[in-house]
Amino acid sequence: MELYRLTAHEAHDKLVKKEISSVELTEALYKRIEETEPKVKAYVTLDKENALAQAAAVDAAIAAGKEIAPLAGVPGAIKDNISTKGLRTTCSSKMLANMVPIYDAHVIKKLRQAETIFLGKTNMDEFAMGSTTETSFFGPTHNPWNLELIPGGSSGGSAAAVAAGEALWSLGSDTGGSIRQPASFNGCVGIKPTYGRVSRYGCVAFASSLDQIGPITRDVTDAALVLNCISGKDAMDATSLDVPVPDFTKALVADVKGLRIGLPAEFYGEGTARVVKDELDKAVEIYKKLGAEIVPVSLPHTKYAVITYYIIAPAEASANLARFDGVRYGYRSQQATSAPEMTTQSRTEGFGLEVRRRIMLGTYVLSSGYYDAYYKKAMQVRTLICQDYAEAFKKCDVLLTPTSPVPAYKIDSQMDPLSIYMLDVTTIPVNMAGLPGISLPCGFADGLPIGMQLIGRALDEATVLRAAYTFEQATEFHKVYAKLGGKD
Amino acid sequence: MTATAANNLKVSQDDVEHIAQLSRLTVPASEREKFTEQFNQILNYADILEHIDTAGIQPTAHVLPVSNVFREDIVKPGSALEEVLANAPAVHNDGFKVPRVIE
Amino acid sequence: MTRYITVIGLEVHAELKTKTKAFCSCSTAFGSRPNTHVCPVCTGMPGALPVLNKQVVEFALRAALALNCRINKFNKFDRKNYFYPDLAKGYQISQFDQPICEHGYIDINVEGEEKRIGITRIHMEEDAGKLVHSGATISTSDFSAVDYNRAGVPLIEIVSEPDMRSAEEARAYMESLKAILEYTDVCDCKMQEGSLRCDANISIMPVGAKEFGTRAEIKNLNSFRALVRAIEYEVERQKEILEDGGHVVQETRTWDDVNGVTLSMRSKEEAHDYRYFPEPDLVPIQLDDAWIERVRSELPELPGARQARLVKSFGLPEYDAGQIVSSKAMADYFDAAAATAKDAKGVANWLLGDVSAFLNSENIGIEDFKVAPAHLAELVNLIKDGVLSSKLAKKVFGELLKEDASPKALVEKLGLQQVSDEGAIAALVDEAIAANPQSVADYKAGKDKAIGFLVGQIMKKSRGKANPGLVQKLLKERLQ
Fold it and tell me: Which of these, A1, C108, C200, C397, could form a disulfide with C172 (CB 3.0-4.6 Å)?
């Protein structure tokens, strides 16, 4: 098998057994990137020199008989909104096109300690605002399963890189589905951990109360390995939780006997495409055969989740993106003669349309006279959404839903913003309630992967992983590769 | 679920101008009409929130019940000056240079 | 002519004396090279997050209790959104609708009249950076340079009720507030360095009116003198407008200390819409009774109590005690000196007299006064014991200012001790009587004043060292 097709844990085994070297593996990945990247465009920046130096260091450690961490020497890719010291971090925005951070995100520090390899930084929707990776200043990423289609987003580059064989694993960030939806569109596994499980320090903030970093991988085992590495309390993030982190690989047990899987009726309604429902129905049958108990549940406020999210997230974003004022870093318009004018012009020229739209939406819902009707109301509805989930989890242990109501669709579909927002309905409530959610492949429709989402109780990633792992062991969907077909 | 047309004008083009100003942005004249229309489309959709009775419901600002997370008052070295200024568009006397502050 | 009532409320920003900033571990040291006490957090680098310094809450709580406030046990931070180059994140982390405390007060005393000034609220927030302008002022500068060393330094904002009715009351409130912040050791209160800043909301209304007039907010008041002058100026300005039939405009004005006027800052100011919302990067603070009571039990003696103690224990006049306690450093100096002084009132007189005059002439605070409290006490004791006349004591004090040493040692070294030896003085007395028969005759003829001349002659002869009391006594005996 081609080295670039390995999972991270397979690569680790081969490194430890000295069947391959990390330099070999890393070079194989860069060769693959060279071949396929012109079609896929998953990366914004590559860091070959440093990656190979790190690989050589890991090889030396192995040669010296040292024990290595599970991700040591295993090449991955990092979403370009995660701060990497000395390596350009653009958020796929003109605003930060030349920004070289002076510090590492907490997750990057942890991954460096684990001696992993960073191949480069992946493309995304600008400032993570979007679900298509089309709002990137650097142009769209193409879905490796069909190059005419979007890879989803906002972590589209991270998912496409894993699917195309351009990285063995990657990091994404998820504010309203930005890990899970592209994972589903690319036939990958993606986890959004419980809010607070992973430090946000160094993840360029979109909506602070919703953002979480998480892995996108080729199987559930890899997801557990990456999650092991990045989880835990960080003194630099007040919202990271000071709770013990279990070894998530211990949860990788193929057994769902007696597990109560809830099916929320609201996720299987008319908004969900037939092809998606069909694959989910089959998945439910598989779980039944495996001994799980299927429980109907209701999450009645689901229909309010999208607009609630599109009030709260832009509100937080309007403040989070205020620091991009052209003073300390980032794009500065050269025409202005005064500081206020400089800031206005820099922001207008430096941000794309969708980012400007969301900043303005957020500004509006917080502004004098509208706060109560929009922002406060949305925060109250958020409470109701949280309560829905608390109620549901009295009846079941995990929830099973489609990850996206539709499969991947065409690049440049010319949809209006609201119609695109509507498609986030399946993933958004999970962020609103701060719960862990995983997406994994559960079938194909017209050659495109369909993803299913498993949602767990807060801090119960273990049960989610176990349910996902059990399904994966019983199916072959994760063993199908993207063909990089279609014309482009 | 499909988006309905912007039949109800919640914000005018002038309002959009004002919001842009508060956000330190401008909406180019060529975009203004369509932008306003889509803005209204989203706000009109938000009307569904009026159907929910939220009287007495506590707003959720933080999803997890955590409080009192503190740092001790111990000085740690900051960043080196050359790092601090490394990404600056313009520098003057170790400071970030900006054009005149008053318009 | 209409008579007007002045209405003043003060908003005071006090920088807390923490070692590190409110939300990062950078030093709060003042006066360093620009941008050398900064990090990704306080320069608002993308992805950086704030973590609250516990000492900020501790200090805010201490100030809140010292100012008689009602503590809110649930605290949260909010983002106050506005753009300015010195504001690194484009928002200030502050407290909006749930401040740490409300409903406090300070009792002031103006010309013997007690008055209670309400404190509306105190909230915690962070300071902004500093703009260094290329020209003399902001409006004559082509460009500015931003220094973020102060960005993120913790502040408390203390908002008063509009309870003050004169510049004197405002000054008294500000002095009391400053003293309390010093006593509780939460702020170093250096108005020149900006660690204590004051904005004044000023309006006037005709006597008998039911509603306050339109107010102007005056900024840049960085001394007590500026506060008083600005209020006096502003009241006159508003009177003139009303007398001319005009309306006072609600606006922000800045105090121009050089020209002694307030100036409108309206230039192109947008209507402010701060769009406050809860800071999602910080979790709430829950204060419990144990925490609050611990801080309360650790409160030091506050100025009011200290004044009462000085009156009671040392018999100082109310006014003198008030003067001494208005500065914690002065009061500490007093207590230290009084501990070994045989005459506490004497210590107080020295402090409020010669010592204060010296400090004023040098433009320094008592913190920088070189004479040790024990030495001042010793000086007072030397007078009390009759070793030094007050005239000689002043001479010794002058020497102490040059070089702090034991006054006793100085007296010996300079040979200044008072001569109280009866034999030696008697010789001088006899000599004077012999040399001044006319004065002797005058005295005997009933002109009591003549004795003063004789005393003077003797003191002169002794070069000031003769004990004046003894001289008097011996003279009177001889001339009987």
Answer: C108
User: Which structure tokens are listed for C156?
Assistant: 């408390």
Same domain, C88 and C217: yes
The answer to whether residue A298 is catalytic is: no
Domain containing C195 equals 4-294
CB pairs under 8 A between B and C: 129
Chain C touched by A345 (CB under 8 Å): no
Q: Is A262 helix (H, G, I), strand (E, B) or coil?
A: strand
Task: Say which of A235, A239, A319 has its CB closest to residue C283.
Answer: A239
Alpha carbon distance C372, C370 (integer Å): 6
pLDDT per residue as tens digits for the range B17-76: 999 999 999 999 999 999 999 999 999 999 999 999 999 999 999 998 899 999 999 999
A173 included as an active-site residue: no
Distance CA C281, CA A200 (A): 10
Does C200 lie in the same domain as C315? no
* Touching subunits for chain B (3+ Cβ pairs under 8 A): A, C
- How many domains does one find in chain C? 3
Alpha-carbon distance A363 to nearest alpha carbon in chain B (angstroms): 6
Q: Taking the mean position of all CA atoms in its chain, how far away is CA B2?
A: 26
Whether residues C139 and C75 share a domain: the answer is: yes
A486: confidence class by pLDDT, cuts 50, 70, 90:
low
Distances (CA, A) of C115 to B63, C349, C389: 47, 27, 42
Residues of chain A neighbouring C43 (CB-CB closer than 8 A): 328
- Reported as a pLDDT band with limits 50, 70 and 90, residue B2 is very low
- Same domain as C177, residue C255: yes
CB A95 within 8 Å of CB A330? yes
Q: In chain B, how many domains are there? A: 1
CB interface of C with B, residues 45-104, below 8 Å: 51-55, 57, 76, 83-85
Q: What is the predicted ipTM?
A: 0.97
Q: Is residue B93 part of a domain?
A: no
| Catalytic-labelled residue, pool A92, A154, A199, A346 | A154
DSSP A108-122: HHHHHHTT-EEEEEE
Q: Which CATH number is associated with domain A3-255+475-479?
A: 3.90.1300.10
A103 and C45: CB-CB below 8 Å? Answer: yes
CB contact under 8 A, B69 and C26: no
Backbone angles phi, psi at B28, to 5 degrees: -55, 145
Residue C457 and residue C428 in one domain: yes
pLDDT in tens, A466-475: 999 999 999 9
Residue C114 host element (H or E): strand C113-126
My answer on whether C221 and C364 are in the same domain is: no
Say if B5 is an interface residue toward chain A (CB within 8 Å). Answer: no
Query: Catalytic residue at A178?
Result: yes
Q: Do C55 and B73 touch (CB under 8 A)?
A: yes
- For residue C186, the 8-state DSSP code is S
Which of C 45-64 lie inside 8 A of A, CB atoms?
Answer: 45-52
Q: Does C258 touch chain B (CB under 8 A)?
A: no
What integer pLDDT is reported at residue C382 of this predicted model? 86
Domain stop point among C414, C435, C470: C414
Q: Identify the domain boundary among C240, C267, C294.
A: C294
The C-alpha atoms of residue A385 and residue A394 are separated, in whole angstroms, by 15
Q: Do C45 and A102 touch (CB under 8 A)?
A: yes
- Side-by-side strand order, sheet with C216-221: C70-71, C101-110, C113-126, C154-160, C4-15, C196-206, C216-221, C251-256, C261-264
